[in-house]
């Protein structure tokens, strides 16, 4: 006696465009199907103006990653790309790396032909890659390119840093207005008021590091904004090419009576530098910025800023803001 095949649940079969089902494909619910249809329809309608004519397609968004030998870095960026696509359906989103990972940026740009593109560096400050490597790759491309500002400094980065610290165990309450002194540098006397927990707390903002003074200025500004958000001193420190190191910054904060010291990871994705900085934390170490929803919003903000500039055939670096 042979067992009969169980009946299929036809309400869960995925449908191809044109009405044909995917073999063996299923949906979790009718609501998911309707959401997918609405998203696709909205993307198509967004290309049509009120008079019925077709609007020009938006410039492609090209995320420019540094590249890493750590496989988690590429996985993180691909998750970030998915979140960007969810926020902006219909926007072409591509990825190119400066080094170490494929696709490399020149290869990605070659695939765009002569189309319009906005390059958004997944970099947190101005430096050699932003000022030299990315513009040189853009200049060698036949595409019409605008280059967005790096991601930092920006309040959305600060909010992401704060939430990553909370995830790691941070729970110090922010201070009130005027309750902060000696923030963002190794000198100063720290707090003159506040509870004992805050008076013992401090944060090291661990960044990659650069010899470019503009990069250091950008990181210091982020440290200042994070200090305002947390209500404790925040000291920028670097994994390479700049001083102080994370270990030195930790010792300097401890010398000021700050023995409850966290390390905030000012890196876009996991990698060797972020791991080395986390290992120097005497208390807690936060995860890198990663694919946090605020990061996807910030990428689109930079894209929109650059898109608003006049289209050019030579690369133009948009101003930060």
The number of helical elements comes to 10
Shape: elongated
Write down the CATH topology of the largest domain.
Answer: Rossmann fold
Low-confidence parts? 1-29, 31-46, 176-193
Give a short account of the largest sheet. 4 strands, parallel
Structural class: alpha/beta
State the domain count. 2
Total strands? 9
Overall CATH architecture of the largest domain? 3-Layer(aba) Sandwich
Neighbour order of strands in the largest sheet:
4-3-5-6
Give the proportion of residues in helices.
Answer: 25-40%
* C-alpha end-to-end distance: 73 Å
What fraction of residues sit in β-strands? 5-15%
Order of helices and strands: EEHEHEHEHEHHEHEHEHH
Average pLDDT works out at 82
Rounded to an integer in angstroms, the radius of gyration calculated over CA atoms is 23 Å
Q: What is the CATH class designation of the largest domain?
A: Alpha Beta
Overview of this protein structure:
With 321 residues, the protein is of the alpha/beta class. It folds into two domains: 108 residues, Rossmann fold; 125 residues, Rossmann fold (3-Layer(aba) Sandwich), CATH 3.40.50. The strands form three sheets. Strands 4-3-5-6 form a four-stranded parallel beta sheet, with helices on both faces. The chain has a three-stranded parallel beta sheet with strand order 8-7-9, with helices on both faces. A two-stranded antiparallel ribbon has the order 1-2. Helix 5 packs across helix 7 and helix 5 runs antiparallel to helix 10.
